[in-house]
Amino acid sequence: MTERMSEEFYKWMQQLQEVDFVLVELTLYLDTHPEDYQAIQQYNEYAQKSKTLRQQIEQKYGPLMQYGQSYSGYPWNWNKPPWPWQM
Prior knowledge:
- The chain is mainly α.
- 59% of the residues lie in helices and 0% in strands.
- The protein has helices at residues 7-32, 37-61.
- Helix 1 (7-32) packs antiparallel against helix 2.
- It is elongated.
- It starts with 6 loop residues before the first helix and ends in a 26-residue tail after the last helix.
């Protein structure tokens, strides 16, 4: 049986997915409009939002990304659910 995380966790994860979606779309746009200053400002704003959300989630629930992108708590906490496919 998979352990269910708190509603706060799922709320934060949804916010992170929404922010990261905006970043993907802005990246695609900026690939073809590299001199759009407002889009670059918006990209940087959302990049900061993404970073802040990730830090908040990881501080409370543990790492989100592997291979040095996220720190691990002690003891090693990569084996704690939920796994991405369980959300």
